[in-house]
Amino acid sequence: MNQQALQNKIPYGMVAILFLGAFVSFLNNTLLNVALPVIMEEFKVNPAQVQWLTTGYMLVNGILIPASAFFIQRFTNRNLFLTAMTLFTIGTLTAALAPSFGFLVAARMIQASGSAMMMPLLMNIMLVLFPIEKRGTAMGFFGLVMITAPALGPTLSGYIVEHYSWRVLFWMVLPFAILVILAAALKLRNIMETRDVSLDLFSLVLSSIGFGGLLYGFSMAGDKGWGSPHVYLTILVGAVALVAFILRQNSMQAPLLNFKIYKFPMFALSSAIMVVVSIAMFSGMLLTPLYVQNVRGISPFHSGLLMLPGAVVMGIMSPITGRLFDKYGPRLLAISGLLITTVTTFLLSRLAIDSTYFYIMAVYTVRMLGMSMVNMPIMTNGLNQLPQIMNPHGTAMNNTLQQVSGAIGSAFLITIMNKRTESEAESLAADALKHVSPDTTPDQIAALKAEIGQQALLHGINFSYFVCAIIVVIALVMTFFVKRVLPPTSQQQEAQSKNPDSGPQKNATATE
């Protein structure tokens, strides 16, 4: 069946199977975060070791996502989806039965090898199945899965870890993963054209070292500090490898990841905006639980519960935003969303020791509402400018940039928080010493130290949120330059398919 016939009669049953598979794999991304302290206790490992359960998962994603463009062009979508879900299921079963910490880390990496392919594969399928005038709605429903599943993870795992074994997290996911494999084997068919592209192994090595090194280095910076050789040497090696990777791709006829997609101005602008928004979103998911748990002393489960309405709002808004995008284009939505995000991020920079639970929940939820109006419209508009043959490269680039910018942004803001916390603690301690008398009891001194630590951390978190608000303003300014991409004419599509590297055809975009 050709693309036009598919777009006239969209196989929604097949789309539902793909969405369920994506939901299961995306949920797994954050499902283990709250369980890390319990796993540390069971396997007698330290925080640096247990961190490999998330770092290892992220590294595999960082290595495989850039290569997804090759896999999507070379192999049929049916075989690729079944392989990805099978790897994910094997990893899930191994994790549930893991007899040692090493087995658990290996299981998480096997899971990641399957999960990494899901997002770029599904985005490419959406771009093939839906005509350009309906892509906003389609990507909106995909956004519901992509955003809601990871956001539900902490709340769900918080409840399970409090009442059951952490292994239940994997046993719970396993039957759904098996169900998706069986349904896909029966119903999934090939709808994407394959090409006889070859894999340049040296490019894959450079990509793995480049993106993997940057992800690992920046993710470790918050824990080990920027002065650690583990951090700065890894980032340096990653940066050098990444530069070599980009130079090699630009000199190849069939690159692993085609950087010539940045000749398309709306795609380039959408990538830049998404990088900034990813920094703001990932850092918010990190700073808010730190405030709730470490400053306010609220349990991990209730911390996850606080973030749940934001996830629900993003889930509800994704399809609505998609429909609004199809009708009005991306600019109005993105400007409105980023204005909301800027104001709410600033409000989070003014938190106090006694800010109420429901006030924090309300501000965080409205902030997520603002972000739901930005991500999918901006990304979809950028992808709409690419010729279809370059869609795998566009989706691979977007997903890679989200991973890398999220890690870099989180590390940057956590470092700012730590430095500000340290300087504030020193200042408060010096002030407190002036009021300590010889009669002060050890218990009073301990209470004073705890209060200083709490106040200093609050100040550090608030300052990081203030910096984050400034970062969001940068994205807001860029959004004013967004133009709506209109469907190319049949002649333009034919010209782009013959010479996809030439850049956008004239009149392919229109100012809103």
TrEMBL record:
Highest taxon above the source species: Bacteria
Keyword terms: Cell membrane, Membrane, Transmembrane, Transmembrane helix, Transport
Protein's membrane topology: Multi-pass membrane protein
Localisation: Cell membrane
Record carries keyword Transmembrane: yes
Annotated signal sequence range: none
A GO term for molecular function: transmembrane transporter activity
Keyword presence, Transmembrane: yes
Membrane-spanning ranges: 12-32, 52-72, 79-106, 112-132, 139-160, 166-186, 198-218, 230-247, 267-292, 304-325, 332-351, 357-379, 463-482
Disordered: annotated span: 489-512
A Pfam family reported for this protein in Swiss-Prot or TrEMBL: MFS_1
Domain Major facilitator superfamily (MFS) profile: 14-487
Predominant location: membrane
Annotated GO CC locations: plasma membrane
Protein family according to the UniProt entry: Belongs to the major facilitator superfamily. EmrB family.
Record protein name field: Drug resistance transporter, EmrB/QacA subfamily
Native source organism of the sequence: Edaphobacillus lindanitolerans
